[in-house]
Structure formats: structure tokens, C-alpha cells
Amino acid sequence: MNIIVQHVDGDYLIMKRSDDKESRAGEYELTAGGNKIKGVDFSEGAWRELYEETGIKADALYELTPVIIREEKRYLQKSFFCLTNIDKNSIQLQAGETQGFQWLSEDEVLAISNTDSLVRLTNEVIERMKEIKLKHFKLT
User: Fold this and answer.
1) How far apart are the first and last CA of the chain?
2) Mapping DSSP to helix (H, G, I), strand (E, B) and coil, where does residue 117 land?
3) CB-based contact 15:53 (threshold 8 Å)
4) Is 14 exposed, middle or buried (0-12, 13-18, 19+ CB in 10 A)?
5) What is residue 53's DSSP assignment?
6) Is the model's pLDDT at 87 over the cut of 80?
7) C-alpha distances in angstroms, 110 versus 14, 25, 113, 115?
8) 27 exposed, middle or buried (CB, 10 Å; 0-12, 13-18, 19+)?
9) CB-based burial, 34-54: b 16+ in 10 Å, e otherwise
10) 91: pLDDT strictly greater than 70
């Protein structure tokens, strides 16, 4: 599962993967997240992963996508959105998983999205997040 974190000021949290990771070590990624544990639903897993990787205790998580079946890699994927007003310097890194973070504007994230990067944001996802913010927070 993946969780996109956006601060109420509009910036997105990107996390730097640990140099110890087997895949794409040291690269930044847009989402916190990880694998779903058998017997644990996606929402519960997303809350756990968000807290473990960032220290964020979110008030709410909102579903961005339905379950996507990745047959070529044999796994299920689901994405969530977290809007937060935490102190941006309070992110807590998870040893062995993350080793740094940055907060980037939407324009900065979109510019990176056009490269071979784990930081990917689509207009479709941006629109879905705007719908969520309008519905739940009266924000655009």
C-alpha cells in the first residue's frame, strides 16, 4: 500500500529510501508504505506503515485508488491520502527503511514525476486529492 502525505500548506512529503534497501536504495519516493500483512486490511496496514515510516499519527486516511492487481509482480496495491498539519521537522525515520525526507511543492513533485523516479504524481491523483480536500475539509 502507498500513502501520499500532503501538508496543509500544499507541500508533499518525499522520503529517501535507506541505502540498505535491495531495490532503488538511496532514492526518494513520494509515498510512505509497504506490504500488506496477511489478515490485516489495507486501511489498518496503511495506518501502521505511515506511523512506522514517518511518525505521523494521521487523523484520517482517504482512499485514492481501488485495489489494483499487479499480476506481473503478483501483488495487490492500494493507495491512500493523508492531509496533515504536523510540524514539518517532526518526521521520524524508520531505520533500515528511510534515511531522509524533504517537503516539495506540487510543481516540484510534478517536475520530478517526469523522470525515472519513484516520485510520481499524476493529474488524476491530484484531482482525486482535491475532491477529498473539498469534501472533508472544504479546501481545494
Assistant:
1) 25
2) coil
3) yes
4) buried
5) H
6) yes
7) 12, 22, 5, 9
8) middle
9) bebeeeeebeebbbebbebbb
10) yes
- Amino acid identity, position 53: E
Give the SS3 label for residue 45. Answer: helix
pLDDT tens-digit series, residues 26-42? 988 888 887 666 777 88
Distances (CA, A) of 79 to 3, 50, 100, 135: 6, 12, 22, 18
Q: Which of 69, 60, 68 is nearest to 132 (CA)?
A: 60
Name the strand (E) or helix (H) holding 128.
helix 123-137
Among 128, 46, 54, which Cα is nearest to 93's? 54
Q: What nine digits make up the cell of 118?
A: 519513484
Q: What pTM was computed for the model?
A: 0.85
Mean pLDDT to the nearest integer, 86-102: 94
Residue, of 68 and 128, whose pLDDT is higher: 128
C-alpha cell at 36: 500488506
